[in-house]
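Study the following:
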Amino acid sequence: MQNKPTSTKKYSLKFWIIFWIVASLVLFGWFVYLQIKNKNIENLKPLVKIFPIGAERRQELNALADIYAKAGGFNGEKTFLILFQNNMELRPGGGFIGSFGILKTKGGKISDVQIFDTGIFDAQIPNTETPPYPLGDMLPIKSWKMRDSNWSPDFKTNVEKAQYFYRLGGGQENFDGVIAISTSVLNSFLSITGPVKIDDYPGLYNDETAILQLEYQVEKGYVEQGIEKSDRKSVMKEMAQVLVEKAHNFSLSQQFALAQKIEDHLKKKDIQFFFRDDALQAEAEKLNWAGQTRDFDGDYLQVVDANLNSLKSDICIRRKIDYEIDLSADQPQAKLAIQYEHTCRARDWMTTNYNDWTRVYALAGSWLVDSSVPPEEMRFSDELGKKVFGFPVYVPIGKTETVNLTYNLPADLKNKTYHLLIQKQSGSGDLPVKIRVVQKDGSETVIEEKLQGDKEYDF
């Protein structure tokens, strides 16, 4: 690669493996790791068998042991691609990829860490790849590149595309794994450390302001400070170094607090894993750590949004879903209402009217019969084993817009007990949902809740 890597410091796996590589480990996993980090990792599995925990937590601890043993570089150097996804500019896979990192481990130590600005890296990629619709129509881009590679809600699909663009840009590394991390993880870390100061940059960074401060720094602040555009994201490297030092001095109570927050990020898919090792990948998928679009024996729904040319306006967007299923007629039918509220009241350097490309992933075999979207704007496809309805959504500042779809579900759905899986898009925040099911006998069930992650429902 032509651009120079950032300076490298060697840190223990105490921080990097837990936070950047194994960031979705649950509370007990973190605690046990701290207690045995200087012993053979195989000592963990016997402890798991006697721990007074449920089967799910026990499975997560076993996964921890396997990930640590195979990701730590104890049997040869391991290399990981880290995708930093900014969910203030929501994309199907979680958020705009403004930066990426390459992290190497060897013999229990970090042997190399590099951070890259995708805007600079993408300049090395030839303009040969046609963007998927409607990327090339709604964005001023000539070619599909790494920063827009996460066009699928399925993380493994995005991993393959990101690695492909990395190669096109001249990258030479062979990755043992890929991890996507949302900006909200930084807020959680800062809530534990308290405010931090970064040398040569103004102000303190805390869990309520850091993301906005960093956004301002890389968009406007660097100009005011006379920093070259190519170095505008150096602040992220400096922030990482400060946080590493903080992590080295965490008290036990701070370690527990961070672990609880990381467990929450796991459930919300703010962190997603891919491992080249088949056994590790299978474990990640079984625990829903892999950001996969899941197969399911029942009804299915996922609403996937893509902010296209709307700056960082997702900080202002509030979503709500109403989903009604009628199984009493000969043909089962679904009615879906998606509400978008733009809570900002004026345009500025970061927010504007919301231009969104929405895709509804429904049960395979579904058929659209009515919609509030003009027919000429609707696109249909079959992806990841689902039927997909795609359409544009435009939400002016301060306004609320609702999209309504009515579609028939496969007839055989009414011949068995009704089950539903709703998958929540990574990076989209908490999602209020209302589900109303009319059974074959006319009886009704209504559920209202705030969805924080994927959830299965039995009726």
Q: What stands out?
A: The mean pLDDT is 85.
